[in-house]
Structure formats: C-alpha cells, structure tokens
Amino acid sequence: MARIEVRQKDTETFEVTVRETATTTHLVVLSQDYYQKLTEGKVSPEMLIEKSFEFLLERESNTMILARFDLPIIGDYFPEYEKNIVQTF
Predict the structure, then answer these.
(1) Scanning 29, 58, 62, 89, which has the fewest C-beta atoms within 10 Å of its C-beta?
(2) What dihedral angle (degrees, nearest 10) is formed by the CA atoms of 80, 51, 45, 18?
(3) Which pLDDT tens digit goes with each residue over 48-82?
(4) Which residue spans within the chain are E strands per DSSP?
(5) Cβ atoms of residues 5 and 17 within 8 Å
(6) CA angle at residue 30 from 57 to 61, to 5 degrees?
(7) Residue 1: pLDDT above 80?
(8) For 25, which DSSP code?
C-alpha cells in the first residue's frame, strides 16, 4: 500500500509525496472554493488531498499522476471523482 504524505506549502499549494515502488512528488493546487464545495469544511484540506490521491492510486500508479495540477482536473480524467470523494466525507 502506498504511503501518502501531504504538506501545505502556502495557502492553496500542497506538496504530496507518494511512496510506493517508486517515490513521486506532486504539487497540488486547491482553491478554498473547491475545498468547501467538496468537504463543506468537514475535514482538513490535507485530508481531502490524501483521499484524492487514494482515489487516483486505485486507478493508476503514482508514476502516472501529473507532477503538478489543480485538484479539479481529476474530474476531467475521472468523471466519478467528485461524487466519490463527497461520499467519503
């Protein structure tokens, strides 16, 4: 199982390290509006990003995940993302 570490770099930018067979690092941008839309403030931004990476890792390896992206882009690749992540919380 992958180990996911999320560290906030600034207000909307997070660094995510995924340790699996290979270790990868990703920069993720999460706007306050999108965070509220998905979580209604029920969990931390870090938890949202961690769960988002768990979602991605069920579908692709960490080496296939973009190195830098805005969190909403996940829904462009996986239309079920928002519904799935909202149900998580």
Answers:
(1) 58
(2) -120
(3) 999 999 999 999 999 999 999 999 999 999 999 99
(4) 3-8, 13-19, 23-29, 68-70
(5) yes
(6) 15
(7) no
(8) E
Answer yes or no: are the C-beta atoms of 30 and 15 closer than 8 Å: no
Tens-place pLDDT, residues 5-58: 999 999 999 999 999 989 999 999 999 999 999 999 999 999 999 999 999 999
Q: Is-above-0.90 flag for pTM? A: yes
Question: Is residue 89 scored above 90 in pLDDT?
Answer: no
The tokens 């509220």 sit on which residue? 36
Closest CA to 68 of 12, 2, 22, 1: 12
For residue 69, the one-letter residue type is F
Gap between the Cα atoms of 66 and 69, Å rounded: 6
Residue identified by tokens 């069920």 is 58
- Measured CA distances, 61 to 2, 5, 13, 21, 37 (Å): 10, 16, 22, 9, 27
